[in-house]
Amino acid sequence: MNRYRFAAPCHFGLEKTLEFEIRKIGGEDISVSDGKVGFSGTAETCAKANIFLSTAERVYIVLGEFRAENYDDIFAGIEKLPLSEFIGRNDAFPNNGHSINSTLTSIPAVQKRVKLAMARNLGKAYGLERMPETGNECKIRFSIMKNVFSLYLDTSGEGLHKRGYRALSNAAPIRETLAAGMIDIARVREGDLVCDPFCGSGTILIESAFKALNIAPGLKRRFAGEQLGFIPKSAWTNAREEARALIKTDADFRAVGFDIDPDCVKLTLENAGKAGVSRYISASVRDIREFSYPDRRVKIITNPPYGERLLEQEQAREIYKIMGEKLIPLGENQLYAITSDDEFENLFGKKADKNRKLYNGMLKARLYYYYK
Asked: What angle do CA 110, 112, 113 make, to 5 degrees?
């Protein structure tokens, strides 16, 4: 059985969470670096990674890694790679990537060299002067980090944060993969009650339901890897069957959302329906000023408003003060709130038991834990 090397990028700050997920699906030889987890496995591991991982952004097969300080190095490095094991005679192979702290900085120029080098490599392997590229599209990604060049084959297609339930969202949604990381940190379980008083489009509530009910986030979508000839169809079929068998249909889980915007509440309920978890989720129009604790212990997991412009920031900070007035004392309840505002603890009125630096897109933020 062939073995492959994989790389799964993730939000900065969620590497350890993703590492744990990869161990659960059988990934081996795991390596962790900033914003990425590497691991080894089979074609079956590839299918399970795409379907089961909740905090990975994509799953790549590592085609090769080598030092590249100039374009000749790219040609020489790609020339040695066994590309025909992954890319078929008629397959298209568009590429894109990024460069950080390296001598090669022009992405269009690198793209051109990668394309030429891959065409030459595959042309020799298939005895062709020109690659037809009329078949399946194999999306190639590259990264150059401190002059180390990495070439990847994307097995995911659309980013793994696209679960299929959120066609529409509110103005400032939290990405599904980041929400899943927050929920993992909060240790949401099947008997929990989760509340998001700023529910937006319902992402935190839905991802909480997925976690509590053990629903694989990629179960209802398709992946680019399903069109790759060297990954058998049975790998995907078996992974989906395993995922369905693991769903907990009798969990005593509930999620409650509130939002001041009626359109957000409507969107939350629609998205919960698309995700297949509407029976576990309720949402209603309510201002944070009207918050009151339920009669059972609750985990509040939320992405409260935070503004980058002065007026927005002032409004957000007023909300943090109101949160403190309504939520403190927490008693046996727990709070997990993510924000980019370093003054959150002072405005909320209580120092967090713990906090973790995370990135919401390109925006640096912190997740504040109140759990003791």
From this structure: 65
Measured between alpha carbons, how far is 206 from 255 in angstroms, rounded to an integer? 8
- Give the chain's residues under pLDDT 70: 168-172, 307-311
CA-CA distance, 335 to 140, in Å (whole number)? 41
| Strands of the 4-9 sheet, one edge to the other | 28-33, 36-41, 4-9, 60-67, 148-154, 140-145, 95-100
pLDDT at residue 308 in the model: 57
One-letter amino acid of 250: D
- Continuous H helices in 133-277: 176-185, 203-213, 233-245, 262-275
Q: How far apart are CA 178 and CA 54, in angstroms?
A: 9
Please give the C-alpha separations between residue 135 and each of 23, 89, 90, 112, 148, in angstroms, as whole numbers: 35, 8, 5, 20, 31
Backbone angles phi, psi at 285, to 5 degrees: -75, 120
- Listed residue (136, 94, 135, 152) closest to 227, CA to CA: 136
Q: What pLDDT sits at residue 361?
A: 73
Give phi and psi for 66, each to the nearest 5.
-165, 165
pLDDT score at 168: 63
C-alpha distances in Å from residue 222, one per residue of 97, 166, 219, 287: 23, 15, 8, 38
pLDDT in tens, 255-314: 999 999 999 999 999 999 999 999 999 999 999 999 999 999 999 999 998 765 555 888
User: What pLDDT is recorded for position 169?
Assistant: 60
CA angle 362/166/334 to nearest 5° reads 70
Distance, in Å, from the CA atom of 369 to the CA atom of 96, rounded to the nearest integer, reads 38
